[in-house]
Amino acid sequence: MINTITQLVISALFTMSLVGCANAPTATNPIADGTRADLALLETTDLHTNVMSYDYFRLAEDKTVGFERVATLITDARKQFVNTLLFDNGDTIQGTALSDYQAQVNPLACDQVLAMYKVMNELKYDAGGIGNHEFNYGLSFLSQVTGNRFNVNLAPAEKGIPAQPCAGPNFPLVLANVLSVKDRQPLFKPYVILDRTIKATGADGKPVNAPIKVGVIAFTPPKILDWDKRWLNGVVYTDGVRELAEKYVPEMRAKGADLVVAISHGGLDAGPYTPSMENANWHLATVPGVDAMLIGHSHQLFPNAASTMPQFNLPGVDKVKGFVNGTPTVMANFWGKSLGVIQMSLVAKDGKWSVDKSKTIVEARSIQNADKTFVAPLPAVAASIKAEHEATIAYVKTPIGRSNFPMTSYFVDVGDTSAIQIVNEAQANYVARYVKANLPQYSTLPVLSTASPFKTGFAGGADFTDISAGDMAINNAADLYLFPNTLYAVKVTGAGLKDWLEAAARRFRQIDPTMTTEQSLTSTAPGYTFDMITSRDFSYEIDVTQGNGNRVKNLMHKGAPVSPTAEFIVATNNYRASGGGNFPGLDGTKTIIASPDSNRDVLIEFIKATKTLTRKEHGSDRSWRFTKVTTAGPITFKSAVDKLPLAAAAGINNVSLFKADDGSGKGLSVYQVNLSK
Amino acid sequence: MRALSVLSKVHSQWMLMVSTFVWASTTFAAPLVSPSPAEIDRLRMYADAGRDNTALDALLVAARTDNADAQRAAGEALLNRADQTRAAEGIMWLERAAAQNDTRAMIMLGKAWLFGLPASGRKADANKARAWFERAQPGSNSHAAYYLGIMEKGGYGKPADPVAAAVHFRFAARQNMPEAMYLLGNAYASGEGVDTDPREAMRWYLRAASLEHPQATQELAQAFARGDTLLPQSDFQAEQMRRAVEHALRHPRAAP
Fold this sequence. Notes:
The structure holds 2 protein chains of 2 kinds. Chain A is an alpha/beta fold. Chain A folds into 2 domains: 35-393, Purple Acid Phosphatase, chain A, domain 2 (4-Layer Sandwich); 398-626, 5'-nucleotidase,  domain 2 (Alpha-Beta Complex), CATH 3.90.780. In chain A, 24% of the residues lie in helices and 25% in strands. Chain A is built from 18 helices and 35 strands. In chain A, strands 7, 8, 10, 11, 12, 13, 14 and 15 form an 8-stranded mixed sheet that branches. Chain A is elongated. Chain B is an all-alpha fold. Chain B has 2 domains: 1-123, no CATH class; 137-256, Tetratricopeptide repeat domain (Serine Threonine Protein Phosphatase 5, Tetratricopeptide repeat). Chain B has 13 helices and no strands. Chain B has helices at 6-27, 37-47, 53-64, 68-79, 84-99, 103-115, 126-135, 142-154, 162-174, 178-190, 198-210, 214-226, 235-250. The radius of gyration of chain B is 22 Å and the shape is globular. In chain B, 55% of the residues are buried. The interface between A and B is large, with 74 and 69 residues.
């Protein structure tokens, strides 16, 4: 404690000594009074490593995004404006398969520059901030790729801080409000003062070159501590945006900054200020001496006269002209869709630049032209990262495992679990390991998993999961797990588990066995609500002759009936655990694991570890069966045309073709299921 | 002198408070300063994530002066230390703040009883949770309304009352809470406590999704995929919504 206090005293004295400097004359070359200059601040934000206009999962061009196109806007702006400074707001190094490839699949060597920073170097950025997503891959990675050596005690799962600074961007990255628990110092430089020479016009109307100092400070949302808890818990902490601005802005001014630009990765919130608030920029704008704000994080456009976003319809916010409490502010959308531009008119007085605020113009320029076409890419960008781009495509296509059976959802409503079981196995495996390592209090509870089919033919015969036997690639995992959900686990009782399965069984209509006419097996409940267990340890029946809530019967665990008071841990996703599909009791109160890992990534890792998937081991367990009943008429369901052989291969022997063409013109047949078998 | 920033002001306050604290333990002298709510929040950030015991001590000094903000902040920081003794101390400070009508402390206590608090060895107790949420004035407090809605919907501690749940969710939803908007949407989709109205459900999902609520955004993705009376079928929009879900899940809002 003594040491801490000593440090505090020292830091207080340090602050005072700098304040002392403020009164001394500054050493910059005096600029003649009346000299004028125009300066445009350019902003990119939330690029998320969308370097190319390309979708790595569809393996196809996507012109609506891409740094290679916003780079054209940057080049154009530099032609238009005589003086420009280019800044990035953050959320830059994470977000596509390219970033995953360089962070996790084939980790970047120390002497290599991250593809995203490489192209930003090409475009000659002046400075950048740090977003929350920069922390997603951990502090050792962030330390490496930014060319830093963070002084932190890393979380156990981290690799380590590089022994020497590694290659990074050749422009400064700053961040004021994240500090190391180890030394109580900011992780990055809190601010930088850029020394630049700009083209100006003297009071006599003649062109002159003049010096300018631009202070750049940056902030990230304090909530990173929750979002990347596994890397940051106990390692770093955050400090208040407004307090730090009130400390550092005068400090930058004292060091001669003519202008101060705040790069703040966050949006606007006019609620009472707290140091821990996520979007502090409405308050930041009121700190004296902040000349412009470049904001982000919300994936929105500002200024935007048409915006209905609550954050842009607050008192003091001019969403037409782009001012927040009088401070010019821009937010340039996301994924390289837009470039933010703040044009400022500067006038020299007493040897310093000041802003003629009446002439400030704020806009966000889109890569999409008025006629809906898109600006052309800047070829240098693609050329610069050709190898990384191609390696990423190769990675996405690389087999992660091999299966000896097709994984399909054509007959999932009648018991084919070929596209479900592997998901349940991966989820249960992850949760069981997590509980063992982190939740000893639950170590005696059985772990099971539920999953549902995402595609069940709503849009026609092509709208089913269908992965051929053979090599499986990364994008097949996206077919098996369509949604980018994150893995959650809940603790439920036996009664709760039965309620859950009852809700899932709403997928089926109530069947009247005495009816002689055709009855549809499935109801309007979508396939993705049909959660099922696929485990040898569990078995249950669904009696479709009963009404909702009374259909799940003989729920057994390891051969014994499940007691209503028994407790289970069930692996699922954030959607279901937090109320998705309105399942009884799944309202967020049962969650015991809220993993930041996506179910899809968990699945990919499981397939990689398992390598070879056989139907016997990974595609034929079905915990549920229909309660046997003889019906007077046919019970039918729709699936794609000509798929009966798949049902037979999956061991589903009670289905037959009822009508080859269902008449919808969508490539569907009507099949019949014999519920007495 | 303005530049002698709030940071150093807070620092010097800590020093005063800490010295007061050491001294106070023998003399019962009253602390000399009363930090503002923002300063207390900042001390909490230092004490909690920053593991800064000096800041925690400063909070405790202020808490002993019956500063409810400091009592709540100290309680929260202590609960997060994941240590049985400290967690019990944390509960005590939350109760002291609640005794001064601090509704945020009441919500924290309600949540501690609703979810249980393994760190303090406390199991969930629905009746105690309900009592705290009711004390926190659900008629004017959206968090209290939201949690009471959950308790009424789930029938925690007493039989479920979906009509009461929907009333609570509607109040919190109108206070701009996306989690409540989502559950109100679910109520309209399923006719729980309100008349079934899929369009009204979708309207609440849209509002919640505009606040980046992941589950509501997923509803929109599913609606676009199948086509809905409000959202015409569009594979492109469905994919955009899935990407929005992915992004929202990377930085979810803190639970209410």
